[in-house]
From TrEMBL:
It comes from Rhizobium tropici. It is an enzyme of class 2 (transferase). NCBIfam families: lnt. PROSITE patterns: CN_HYDROLASE. InterPro entries: Apolipo_AcylTrfase, C-N_Hydrolase, C-N_Hydrolase_sf, LNT_N. This is Apolipoprotein N-acyltransferase.
Length: 533
């Protein structure tokens, strides 16, 4: 290992740049659909050795000394995000005549921007860099801070945060309930980078020993949490049966004629009224995906009447739809990406609008400026969607409360407002048909499962083309429908975990972990940690 680390440390020029990009790209194998978490050990071990080798000229100023570290982290992030997000270009090919020109921006531009966060991380790490365990701690601390910044700056985009690489299966997800995805990220980077100590001797025993203890605690707590029973379902007279509908409709069909849109509506209805499999109980609640209704529902009384004809009086339909708000004469109406709750009489009895919109998908930032450059929304609506000021809990007639998250809102831990403490389940409706059968829908599904674990709540997820599923509060898939399959699944709604940890506590634990790891790096930097081989 010392021979290998020496070769990596000394590599230079084009070979060095290529190796850093490759190190980042290899880490993507830890994410869905692969789930090979050991790939992260390769990525971060190489990154540590490559950062060991960064050097600036003797006469360089502050920026000159920091630039090699930043560029190394940026290249690492560029490789990671290109390999992990290339599938975003698929959405632009749905209407290729209009948006194909933007493919380089989606495939290379966004990764180049996101890579800046990892460049900042490696700069922070190099400021605290030292021999032995200190540099591993510095890297873990800095990546935790970088992922925290990535979760909210510039509207936020925490997709494929490093911590997800340490959570491919439920056994390895449970730590997120205590310390959150960001806390897992800090400790995961420490563990993933620890093998670098095998190539440099200093701090080998304490570093590897501590990494083993962290990994053992991660697995041990997972085993313990999975053995715990769930709390009984509250706020409901009876335990309801929920049906998830997955129509598997091609995105291009949603953009075609009125006859095509009517056929789409008919398919949803037909799947909703199918008899339960194996003579089971009729569903009490039926869930359709994001924007399942392909027209403005409130302008189509016939559609509401058809829903009423198909549902029994005590059944409930929850569906994604576009909601329009009339702003008065001479003013463009506002459109919202919404969820409706419709009762058996065809009446809309509840609604919740999306609060966190997709940039360039649902709205254009700085629209007045960018419109002159020909940059428009991928979704064709005048002025795009509007964001709701506040998320509304969906309260059903029997007292059940669902916490609604539309599409990629579920990837944001900070979208979980205090109201979620009142919820019986997380409801996620999405339309991943935009991304085809690529890693995108599988990565999205993993992040949704981790949100369920963090909150200790069951997850009801309806996706147009998949992956639709019932997920228990420990992230286990109770039943689901594979990608690009048409059908439905019926499952009784379960309860939450017995002891739900508050989001405020998770944030405190995250910053405590960051503080302890940063202190370890600082003490090592100051030379107070002895060199133990």
């Amino acid at each position: 290992m010392e021979w290998l680390s020496g070769r990596v440390i000394l590599v230079w020029g084009f070979k060095r740049a290529l190796l850093v990009i490759l190190a980042g790209a290899v880490g993507v194998l830890a994410l869905p659909p692969f789930g090979f978490f050991a790939a992260m050990f390769i990525s971060f071990t190489l990154l540590v050795w490559l950062l060991d080798g960064v050097a600036a000229g003797p006469d360089s100023g502050l920026l000159g000394r920091l630039w090699p570290a930043f560029f190394t982290g940026w290249l690492f992030g560029f490789g990671y995000f290109v390999a992990g997000l290339w599938w975003l270009g698929h959405a632009l090919l749905i209407d290729a005549d209009e948006f194909a020109w933007a493919l380089p921006l989606a495939i290379l531009g966004l990764p180049a921007f996101l890579a800046v966060f990892y460049g900042v991380a490696t700069v922070l790490a190099r400021v605290l860099w030292s021999d032995g365990i200190g540099r591993i701690a510095a890297l873990a601390c800095s990546f935790g801070i970088a992922e925290w910044l990535r979760s909210f700056l510039f509207t936020g985009f925490p997709w494929n945060a490093i911590g997800y690489g340490a959570m491919p299966i439920p056994l390895m997800m449970q730590s997120a309930h205590v310390i959150g995805m960001l806390g897992v990220t800090v400790l995961a980077v420490f563990v993933f980078a620890a093998p670098a100590l095998l190539g440099t001797r200093q701090g080998r025993l304490p570093g590897i020993g501590l990494a083993v203890l962290i990994a053992a605690a991660h697995f041990g707590y997972g085993y313990y949490a999975l053995s715990q029973p769930e709390a009984p379902l509250t706020d409901a007279k009876t335990v309801p049966v929920v049906r998830i509908v997955q129509p598997s409709i091609d995105q291009e069909a949603k953009m075609d004629t009125a006859a095509d849109r009517a056929a789409i509506f008919d398919r949803h209805l037909a799947l909703s009224v199918q008899p339960p499999a194996n003579g089971g109980k009729r569903p009490d609640i039926i869930v359709w995906p994001e924007t399942a209704v392909p027209f403005i529902l409130t302008d189509n009384r016939d559609a509401l009447a058809r829903i009423a004809d198909q549902l029994d009086d005590d059944q409930i339909l929850i569906t994604g739809a576009v909601r329009v708000e009339d702003m008065g004469p001479g003013v463009e109406p506002r459109y919202y990406n919404s969820i409706y709750v419709i009762d058996g009489r065809g009446q809309i009895i509840g609604a919740s609008d999306k609060t966190h919109l997709v940039p360039f998908g649902e709205y254009v930032p700085f629209e007045h400026i960018l419109s002159y450059l020909g940059i428009e929304n991928v979704v064709e609506l005048p002025g795009g969607f509007s964001a709701a000021a506040k998320r509304q809990l969906l309260t059903l007639p029997d007292g059940l409360k669902f916490y609604p998250l539309i599409c990629y809102e579920i990837i944001f831990p900070n979208e979980m407002t205090p109201e979620i403490r009142q919820a019986n389940a997380i409801l996620n409706v999405t339309n991943d048909a935009w991304f085809g059968d690529t890693p995108g829908p599988y990565q999205h599904f993993l992040q949704a499962r981790v949100r369920a674990v963090e909150q200790g709540l069951p997850l009801i997820r309806s996706a147009n083309t998949g992956i639709s599923a019932f997920v228990d509060p420990h992230g286990r898939v109770l039943s689901g429908i594979d990608y690009n399959q048409q059908g439905f699944i019926d499952t009784t709604l379960g309860g939450a975990t017995l002891s739900r940890i508050d989001d405020k506590a998770r944030k405190i634990y995250f910053w405590l972990i960051v503080g302890v790891v940063a202190l370890t790096a600082l003490i090592s930097r100051m030379g107070f940690i002895s060199r133990v081989n």
